[in-house]
Description:
The complex is a heterodimer. By secondary structure, chain A is α/β, with parallel strands linked by helices. Chain A has two domains: 2-51 and 85-162, Arc Repressor Mutant, subunit A (Orthogonal Bundle); 168-383, Dna Topoisomerase Vi A Subunit, Chain: A, domain 2 (3-Layer(aba) Sandwich), CATH 3.40.1360. In chain A, 44% of the residues lie in helices and 16% in strands. In chain A, the strands form six sheets. In chain A, strands 10-7-13-12-14-15 form a six-stranded mixed sheet, with helices on both faces. In chain A, strands 9-8-11 form a three-stranded antiparallel sheet. The radius of gyration of chain A is 23 Å and the shape is globular. Chain A starts with 6 loop residues before the first helix and ends in a 5-residue tail after the last helix. In chain B, the strands form three sheets. Chain B has an eight-stranded mixed sheet. In chain B, strands 9, 10, 11, 12, 13, 16 and 17 form a seven-stranded mixed sheet that branches. In chain B, α12 (372-382) packs antiparallel against α16 (607-615) and α14 runs antiparallel to α15. The longest helix of chain B is centred in the C-terminal third of the chain and has 53 residues, at 492-544. The two termini of chain B are 58 Å apart. The interface between A and B is medium-sized, with 32 and 23 residues.
Amino acid sequence: MARKKTVKKATSRAKSTAKTGKRSKNGNPTATKEKIVALAESVLSHIDAAGNPSLNVPIRSLSNVSFNKRKRIIELGDGKANRPFFDLSNARRFMQTLLMSSELLKLQDQEKTTSIRDMFYHCKHTIEGTREETFNDQDESDPIIEDLEVTLRTLREELRVFANPDGAMVGPMVVRDRGDEIDLSRMGSGGWAVPSIVEPETIQFVKSKAKYVLLIEKAAVWARFNEDRFWESQKCMIIHGRGQPPRGVRRLCFRMVQELGLPLYVLVDNDPWGYYIYSVIKQGSINLAFESARMAVPTARFIGMSSYDAVEFDISPSVTIRMNDKDIARAKEIMAYPWFQDRRWQREIKHMLKLGVKLELEALSNKEFSFIADTYVPAKLKKGKWLD
Amino acid sequence: MSKPKSATTQNDKSQLSLTFPGDAGPTVTRVSPRKRSSPKKNGGTRRSQRDSTPVTAEKMASQQREISVSEFFAKNRHLLGFDNKRKSLLTTVKEAVDNSLDACEEARILPDLFVDIEQLEEDRFRVTVRDNGPGIVKSQIPNIFGKLLYGSKFHRLKMCRGQQGIGISAAGMYGLITTGKPVSVVSRTSKRAKAHHYKLAIDTKKNRPDIVHDDEVEVDWAHGTEVEIELVASYGKGRQGIDEYLEQTAIVNPHAEITYQPPIGERIVYARGSDQLPVETREIKPHPHGIELGILIKMLKETQSQKIGAFLKEEFSRVSPSVVKSVCEKAKITPATWVRQVDSQTAEKLYKALQEARIMAPSTDCLAPVGADQLLAGLLKGIKAEFYTASTRSPTVYRGNPFQVEVGLAYGGEIPADQLARCNRFANRVPLLYQQSHCAVFKSVAETNWRLYGMQQSSGALPSGPLIVVIHFASVWVPFTSESKEAIADYDEIRKEIGLGLRECGRKLNTFIRRRKKTQRESQRRSIFLRYIPEVSNALQAITGRESGGIREQLQEIAKYRTELADREMDDRGNIVRKRRDSLDDEHTVIVERDTPTDVDDSLFEGDEVKRISEKGSRAPRAKAKRGRKKRSVKK
Lengths: 388, 636
């Protein structure tokens, strides 16, 4: 229906359909389907043998991840959890996994892409003869999808599901999004919303004049950089992920670094959570360790804010926030991660603990509204004052 | 026992009417059960004056006089169980019922009792208890009902309910004191005889019956006795009341049929659960280990035997010729020594020798336990539980007196689960309702570690949960802590024996609780699996195209097999066991399956049905249990 709105759009849609069609010819969706069927067949063979049907799901927790020092990314280990049906603690999740698999298969057949929230509602129903729901809330269905991703060794994109897109980007670049060419330097105040799926099949980089990518933790701070047209003067891409960046933003950064050879700078609050956001961009996360290889940017640079900046930039002590017990505990936890063992990082975190205060990006507005964009970031970049 | 006893030791002989005329022993602390003498009124002997300070002594002497038993107990009626109005009513009924049951059993008659309580005024009641016993000969009626410490049971070692000859006359005395109305007794000994009717008052000063009325009446029953006492009392339902007493009496006396007419409400019939009278018990002679020196001296004085050897053999149980020989050697006398020649020193030697000698435990055929089957039948009749077990311990001895302990447990069902367990105590088939915490039985139950048996328990307390513990203590002489016969004295042997019985039943209870928990867990497991199976098989069909019905059946089969497997072959730690280690498959355990406390088939518990089942004999309770199961399954 949407196709008929304008001729221009219709043609572009046609192109994209052609693309997806081509993709299925590539065998990608078929492979996903085959994997799901194979999973079900293995369960059936257990049943035929009158055994306990079970699934082997790779474990996604700290115990099963390791830091690869050479690649400088977090990798998923070989640990697998056996999830037998005839086991009280696993029966429900077993049922949910199979239910989700069958619905994901339907998605493949219909060649549709949908959100994980959609999948939750799609799979949710009352189990016959009881008052029990197949899924109570999305917190129950999301891990099941993630489990399936690792179990089937497929990407979320291949399963045709995505999370809520979050994040925006502007800068001197032209991209093609499902066939539509978009000039990212003409995106107004809101910027280009980064989609959840940014695979080469959907997004292609057409033209780029950017010299680097600046990832900003907060949307509000990003808006300041955008209004000041920082990207124009600095010839860079500015992108935000509203806190912990979603997969789309991370994957896009990865691709820009990988395909366009741009350096990536990360600008976050000066608190333990800021450090951790940086570490996720750089090494990958524990929960999605299986995706590290295609998302983590080991060369990402931490531009700020550093615990030394307050003195360096003469920031008033009145805009600092005292660290609470949770902050201190988290800082110590982060200090113990193998990927924060660099001497400069240890010094950075120790200094923060010593000062006992944290600093938000907005604190820099205390001096001047545009201090962060006009002075802070350029100065840091010029002096090469970053951590990596 | 303790009060009259202490009275004896405190005062000169002949001071109290309780003193035994023939008692010459220097320190008689215990009254021999063998003693023939009955307490007699000594007829106002005054204490002789003292020689010092004549004025005070004379003055005192004018106030010093004998106290009669009746006076003593009239003043100290709490010792006999008449402390308050409610308890007085219970004690009155209890004494009358105990006497009736004793009389019937001794005459080998299946007891039919009628208990009627009539409220005359707010706090005035008339208690009538009638039995179908042998009746009482006319001449004895006044003494039995009108004289304290008069009876047939004190002087012998035989298992029966009454012991001291105080009870019913004390009840009569209480009625007389509070209402001024004499006791009315009607008794008939046979069809041919006429029924005597007496109205008796106790002369408390002289401890003598005062016959107020005496005639013959026509009654519609062939033999038996009817007592009617009017007294000040109060009636209340619930715990420690008459209703509870009769209910519990019915449990341990399944051979008795008791019809009860409460002051308010419908007539209650506790139907006969068994036609078997308790085994007739033998009277036994004292065991040498159960006597004291004073008693030995007294026995030496009273014996008909001429020589020591004969005396030992005749007067004691379990004294064999070889025992006589060894005892005499030790005491440095010969069996041929004349009894008359034994002086107090020799008696002491003889006593020591007797205590040191190895003598067989007293014979135990003098005991008539309720029996595990009968106890079970009683429990099944009276309590709606899920699990019942009972056990009868072998007889043992305390202080030379044989005794036997029986334990029954009822668990689950309609027993309230949020309260402490109830402990029902019985001594010689009489329910004990008061002074629980002073009783050896209670102490044994509280000191048993019920946590081992799947119950909750805070230390030193009764376990909490849906449990009723029934303990029957049978002995030729029950060591009560007071004349009101409310608590059993705390002898080590008794406590130990009760503890062993409790543990025996506790283990079975534990097996049941554990198994039930496991079954519940298993059925829960199965239901969870069965719930998810349709979802799983539908999903599998959607993915593979294979027909879901078949998958479902296969899965259901596996679910059944897997949960059954766990049920059958795994113990609580999940280890696979080849054979069931602990089985509840013995004949003294009954399991009645009940889903929920409210969902109980009441028809199962009607008196007549239990009766019919119990008639079949020892396997009866199991048969009942099976019936229970069948009914359940039919319902489903």
